[in-house]
């Protein structure tokens, strides 16, 4: 039976973090005396085509000519590309296994390096559409198959018309050839993928900008490895915070905004807050920060209303000893808490340090430290036939912090029940 939907995914700078032909050039021309100049030419041809300023066919012809590549270089490239799969695609491998019939890789790249990379993710060989190289008897790449529609300008449009798939089509990519599918009317929606590169000429034309594959899965209500896309988690950085601290948060995929002073307009939407030494957060703003999960303070937390933070279920990490390494250590603690629920070395929460457990879901329940809460939590799990993989509870004088790893499917009724437990402060699903 033909699937009702197909997800058409680009390869270069989408499924992988890089442009494969650019990477092949760095391998094949490693010892060439003019390698840097040639690298630049190849990258220029790539970008001109991706931005729609040069025909794809002309760009491809010029790049292949400059490669001077052979089969040995191809093997090295494949090994390299397997390590360069985009992070959000890599962590959602389970999606590709479950939806193998619905995923198509459609690329102006080449099957010779695409198939070995995407096949690891259960993507079917017959669902991979790309160009093919032509080699001579010595294994030297001398040309490509010009009869393949994907080697031409507008090739993806031509291919999809030939396939004539009777289903709703959704396209994910970073370049002009991906947008052309939307422009042609062949696909229902085009998602500009910006995890690796953001091209303004493409982003402004997209139906939706998806900074990660998690975002694509989230907006389409598809199964994903994390409960909420990191690009939707707002991290507000206030004051004179070192660049390395900010970059660490950005690298992990959070949406980071850096301001000199706290602006009240952000208070209702902020999930993470990193404060420079000397910055403060008044009681009114703190009370309104209902989504706030964690605060990192590059100074002493004594300047914060630490008791209020605890009562609100906000985990605080501070640098009361002014350790120079804490410009990285504090944001790392914030990241670990958001990703795994680890509260190690927090200023106000019980210390709990746990590794991520694969093939499971992690639920966090923060509550007032009163008797009987865990019994109520486990009664709810039993009523919903939930199998518990691991469970941990730590308390202090004010709160209880419970983490439960489960390995079964669940429904939203479970979450509603856990949130309704009396004395619950915060509840969330990590992954």
UniProtKB/TrEMBL annotation:
The keyword Membrane does not apply. Its cofactor is Mg(2+). Its EC number is 3.1.3.3. The keyword Ribonucleoprotein does not apply. Keywords: Amino-acid biosynthesis, Hydrolase, Magnesium, Metal-binding, Serine biosynthesis. InterPro entries: ACT-like_dom_sf, ACT_dom, AHAS_small-like_ACT, HAD-like_SerB, HAD-like_sf, HAD_sf. GO terms for biological process: L-serine biosynthetic process. Pathway: Amino-acid biosynthesis; L-serine biosynthesis; L-serine from 3-phospho-D-glycerate: step 3/3. Residues 362-431 form the ACT domain. GO terms for cellular component: cytoplasm. One of its GO terms (molecular function) is magnesium ion binding. It comes from the Bacteria. It catalyses: O-phospho-L-serine + H2O = L-serine + phosphate; O-phospho-D-serine + H2O = D-serine + phosphate. It is an enzyme of class 3 (hydrolase). Pfam families: ACT_AHAS_ss (PF22629). PANTHER family: PHOSPHOSERINE PHOSPHATASE. This is phosphoserine phosphatase.
């Amino acid at each position: 039976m033909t699937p009702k939907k197909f997800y058409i995914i680009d390869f270069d700078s989408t499924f992988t973090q890089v442009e494969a032909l650019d990477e092949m050039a760095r391998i094949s021309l490693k010892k060439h005396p003019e390698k840097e100049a040639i690298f630049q030419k190849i990258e220029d041809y790539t970008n001109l085509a991706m931005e729609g300023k040069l025909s794809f066919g002309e760009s491809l012809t010029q790049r292949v000519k400059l490669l001077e590549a052979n089969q040995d270089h191809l093997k090295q490239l494949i090994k390299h590309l397997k390590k360069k799969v985009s992070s959000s695609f890599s962590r959602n491998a389970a999606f590709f296994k479950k939806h193998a019939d619905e995923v198509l890789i459609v690329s102006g790249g080449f099957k010779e390096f695409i198939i070995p990379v995407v096949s690891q993710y259960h993507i079917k060989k017959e669902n991979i559409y790309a160009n093919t190289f032509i080699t001579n008897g010595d294994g030297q790449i001398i040309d490509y198959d010009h009869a393949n529609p994907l080697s031409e300008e507008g090739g993806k449009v031509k291919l999809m018309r030939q396939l004539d798939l009777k289903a709703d089509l959704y396209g994910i990519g970073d370049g002009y050839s991906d947008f052309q599918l939307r422009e042609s009317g062949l696909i229902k929606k085009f998602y500009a993928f910006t995890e690796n590169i953001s091209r303004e000429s493409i982003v402004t034309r997209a139906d939706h900008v998806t900074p990660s594959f998690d975002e694509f899965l989230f907006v389409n209500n598809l199964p994903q490895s994390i409960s909420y896309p990191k690009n939707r988690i707002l991290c507000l950085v206030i004051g004179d915070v070192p660049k390395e601290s900010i970059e660490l948060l950005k690298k992990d995929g959070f949406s980071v905004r850096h301001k000199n002073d706290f602006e009240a307009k952000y208070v209702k939407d902020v999930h993470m807050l990193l404060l420079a030494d000397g910055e403060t957060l008044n009681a009114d703003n703190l009370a309104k920060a209902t989504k706030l999960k964690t605060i990192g303070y590059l100074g002493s937390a004594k300047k914060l209303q630490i008791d209020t933070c605890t009562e609100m279920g906000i985990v605080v990490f501070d640098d009361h000893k002014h350790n120079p390494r804490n410009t990285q250590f504090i944001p790392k603690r914030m990241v670990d808490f958001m990703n795994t629920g680890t509260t190690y070395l927090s200023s106000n929460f019980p210390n709990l340090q746990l590794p991520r457990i694969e093939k499971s879901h992690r639920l966090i329940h923060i509550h007032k430290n009163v008797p009987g809460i865990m019994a109520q939590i486990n009664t709810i799990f039993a009523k919903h036939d939930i199998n518990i993989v691991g469970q941990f509870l730590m308390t202090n004088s004010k709160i209880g912090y419970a983490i439960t790893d489960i390995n079964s499917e669940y429904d939203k009724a479970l979450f509603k029940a856990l949130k309704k437990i009396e004395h619950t402060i915060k509840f969330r699903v990590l992954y």
